[in-house]
Design brief:
mainly alpha; Ferritin; two-stranded antiparallel ribbon; 2% strand; globular; UCP07580; Metal-dependent hydrolase
Length: 292
């Protein structure tokens, strides 16, 4: 494990990331040469939801990397080291979700339309100010951290999943929790000359926009994948809604964490949930690579 780098008092006031936090790169590989049953979540609705999520990750995580790297100049040594570790973790996540997406395609799912939609949306960001892309990244990183904490805290989400698929999602979740403050701290660094109100207003408005698009697009994507399984109409809509809001109910369960994002002075590390990483880290100890 890395020795923690010192954090100056001025930064600590706006970035309560734990001083002893170490972001560790876990170089794991999953879903190579495996052939799980078609519904690896144990049923079609969880399978569709997670396939829809995974299909967005390769392009999405590349976008996150570039948005954060664009604002690393002048960062203090601790944040600079965390950005480097964040990039390494996200590169590995991209690699593993490419493998997972191939698994989905080999099982007969057509996810090319999802990837194309993501590509089109990202093309619209080319002419936007770089700080806008960082604000979107910060909001989406909060989503990944919320879902990651829920997936690790509540075994019901993957209790019937294919074991290797389950391990991939839990590995990804552990690292999302670990680096959940990096984009936010980079935002604080990049907007250090802004007023607190301006920071709050922009991040809140961006979160509302991101939320609307996130759920609209993932809902459409999931229904498309369910249709590929022969599940359509109200059966598909009710089954997906029940999966997301009733049992296991990831959307319902993350709502308080989502709401906390709008609190003035919010920071992702207001809630230190590193114990969730500890619950599973032993499974990956042979692959631990401390970040430089």
């Amino acid at each position: 494990m890395n020795a923690p780098l010192p954090i100056d008092t001025a930064t600590a006031k706006t970035a309560p990331t734990p001083a002893d936090l170490t972001i560790t790169v876990r170089d794991e590989r999953f879903n190579r040469g495996t052939n799980p049953r078609r519904w690896w979540a144990g049923e079609p609705f969880g399978t569709a939801w997670h396939n829809a999520l995974s299909a967005t990750f390769p392009r999405g995580e590349a976008f996150f990397i570039e948005a954060v790297k664009a604002h690393r100049e002048g960062a203090d040594p601790k944040l600079e080291a965390e950005i480097r570790a964040f990039v390494k973790q996200e590169i590995n996540h991209t690699r593993e979700h490419i493998a997972f997406n191939k698994l989905a395609e080999n099982a007969g799912y057509d996810i090319k339309a999802i990837d194309q939609r993501v590509a089109e949306l990202l093309a619209l960001t080319k002419d936007r100010p770089a700080i806008a892309n960082l604000a979107v990244t910060m909001a989406l990183e909060h989503y990944t951290a919320m879902m990651a904490a829920e997936f690790l805290a509540n075994p019901a989400h993957f209790k019937d999943a294919d074991p290797e698929v389950r391990d991939m999602w839990r590995w990804h979740a552990a690292e999302e929790i670990e680096h959940k403050g990096v984009a936010y701290d980079t935002w604080n660094h990049a907007t250090k000359d802004w007023t607190p109100f301006r920071r709050w207003k922009v991040r809140s408005l961006v979160m509302l926009t991101v939320t609307a698009r996130f759920f609209k697009n993932r809902w459409v994507d999931s229904l498309n994948l369910l249709e590929q399984d022969g599940i359509t109409g109200w059966k598909a809509k009710w089954g997906l809604f029940k999966y997301l809001t009733v049992s296991p109910g990831v959307v319902r369960r993350i709502f308080p964490a989502w709401l906390s994002y709008f609190k003035p002075g919010f920071h992702p590390w207001d809630h230190d949930d590193r114990e969730l990483i500890g619950l599973y880290e032993g499974e990956f100890e042979d692959a631990l690579l401390p970040a430089e």
